[in-house]
Amino acid sequence: MRLHPRNAHLRRAGFRAATAVAALALPLSLAAPAGADPGTADQRRVMASITAPGAKRHLQTLQSIANANGGTRASGTPGYAASRDYVAGQLRKAGYNVTVQPFEFPFFQEKSTALLNQVSPDPATYRPTPPDGSSLGDFATMTYSGSGDVTATVQAVDLTLPPAPQPGSTSGCEASDFASFTAGNIALLQRGTCNFEDKARNAQAAGAAGVIIFNEGQPGRTETLQGTLNQPGLTIPVVGTSFAVGEDLASPAGTVVRVRTDTESENRTTWNVLAESKKGRADRVVMSGAHLDSVLAGPGINDNGSGSAALLEVALRTAELQPQNKVRFAWWGAEELGLLGAEHYVANLSEADRARIRLYLNYDMVASPNYAFKIYDGDDSDGVGSPAGPPGSDEIEKTFEKYFDALRLGHVGTDFDGRSDYGPFIAVGIPSGGLFTGAEGVKTAEEAALFGGTAGEAYDHCYHQACDDLSNINDRALAVNLGAIAHSTLTYAYSSDLPGPETRTATTGAARTAAAGHGHGHGLTK
Predict the structure, then answer these.
(1) Whole-prediction pTM value?
(2) Could you give the residue ranges of the DSSP H alpha helices within 336-379?
(3) Most buried in the list 7, 104, 123, 213, measured by CB within 10 Å?
């Protein structure tokens, strides 16, 4: 992606904030204000109260919640419910109109490490992928697999071995594939043209005691499958393997295998937390959001305690102001399972309510230890990946650029790739933007020259792991981005010239489908 010059003079066409909010000073010290310099005495006083230590206190609370609840704040766990209560309680005390929005979602947890052994004729133990995903083994439990411990004969179902030059296996895709299947056997299936869910359900309906799905075998389709069955409902063990393991188990006929999985797979309830200012025009809603849930493997202090805490601090400190436009904040549930909270929220808005949301700003991971300052590429000027956002997204990008440029801080673009909760908003034409400091991706030499840190290493080496705790926060990145969040919030709260068309139908903008979660490795579907 294109690097933006450190001192580039960027203007946002038509930008006229009623209070002349501008990023004139941002102390990088955690003891000093982290924000813009608004135009009135009251706003200056409020902005001076927005400090990184305030956001750090919220992070400390989220860490304590995780510590008290098995080391996690994932949706569907007590740690998430406690996080919800903390955020909602703070917002109510500050005087916001707070809504806690429940929704059901498919919960899955692998409780202990799975097992896959060949019992005969050639005894072998295959390496498991542990529940925390810290390494990739010879096989992995499929998301939404049932539990069980089964020793039985493997029965191949419509395999193509050796594999065809191009992908196209239909193994297990039709119920008729199992016409001669012996109930109680373990079905051995090959990746191909239909969903893993369809294959597994057909096998279960035929009486299979377990299912092994192996990769198809063409170049790029040989590694261990980390797949999802899309939803709860399977009651038997289902694992994905490499092509090599599948080929090994396919011959000779009569091979006996033991497979064991230990999972929880069920529908549970989780919540979004929404807070809205009592003042401001209801037909001009300025919305910001961050996902509140962690993954099961850890406390999620950078991902995404950082965005949640920063947004909460901005909301609390600006609560007493009387904005020109309605200001709405959101903390999303079940983002880590596929943007489910944001999708639920957007899907349940009326067309009129969608049209009232004039823009959406997203903050997901804003304090990565090996950070880069990344701004969502609303105008697709980088020419990478997804197209430009809905009309107005380009103006949002320039607002953030103006902030960083005023501080003489470098910044780069980041693609609208559907990895976070902006996805459902841009899918219905709502102008969007936001900030990101990097996840499992590797920092480039150019970025290291611009931001410091270490080239060739991940932005967040604890991404989706138990070590994503308070020690995984870069304080400078948190302070800078907290200021950017405060700046954008106040800019749009008081602006008479919001990004995008003045009137907009809910379906304006590029047609999009949000990716299945934040690129978080939730698994292939087929």
Answers:
(1) 0.85
(2) 340-347, 351-356
(3) 213
- The rounded distance, in Å, linking the Cα atoms of 115 and 149 is 9
Q: Can you read off the two tokens belonging to residue 242? A: 């490499």
Edge to edge, the sheet with strand 263-276 lists 3-4, 411-414, 374-376, 432-436, 357-363, 281-291, 325-332, 263-276, 97-110
Query: Which amino acids are annotated catalytic?
Result: 335
Tokens of residue 261, six digits:
């999985």
Helix or strand or coil: residue 152? strand
Spell out the residues 6+ positions from residue 459 whose beta carbon is closer than 8 angstroms to its own. Answer: 368, 369, 370, 371, 372, 437, 438, 439, 440, 441, 442, 443
Please check whether residue 18 is in contact with residue 324, taking contact to mean a CB–CB distance below 8 angstroms: yes
Strand partners, 434: 362
What is the DSSP track for 59-106? Answer: HHHHHHHHHTTTT--BTTSHHHHHHHHHHHHHHHHHT-EEEEEEEEEE
Which one, of 466, 463, 464, lies nearest residue 70 by Cα? 466
Sign of CA dihedral 376, 380, 382, 386: positive
d(CA 12, CA 416): 20
Q: Looking at residue 5, what is its pLDDT?
A: 29
Q: Which residues contact 80 (CB under 8 A, 6 or more apart)?
A: 73, 74, 270, 292, 293, 294, 333
Q: Which amino acid is at 194?
A: C
Q: Which stretches of the chain score pLDDT less than 70?
A: 1-39, 504-523
Find out whether 301 and 473 touch, Cβ atoms under 8 Å: yes
Tokens of 387: 């197209």
Give residue 127's pLDDT: 98
Six-digit token string for 145: 């697999």
Distance in angstroms (rounded) separating the CA atoms of residues 81 and 456: 37
Instruction: State the burial class of residue 321 (Cβ atoms within 10 Å of its Cβ: 0-12, 13-18, 19+).
Output: buried
How far apart CA 226 and CA 214 sit, in angstroms, is 10
Please report the pLDDT score of residue 525 as a whole number: 83
pLDDT of residue 45: 78
Q: pLDDT tens digits, residue range 193-214?
A: 999 999 999 999 999 999 999 9
Kindly provide the b/e burial profile for residues 448-481, where b requires at least 16 CB atoms within 10 angstroms of the residue's own CB: bebbebeeeebbbebbbbeebbbebbbbbbbbbb
- The pLDDT score that the predictor gives to residue 505 is 58
Say if strands 3-4 and 281-291 run parallel, antiparallel, or are unpaired: unpaired
Instruction: Spell out where 416-496 has E strands.
Output: 432-436
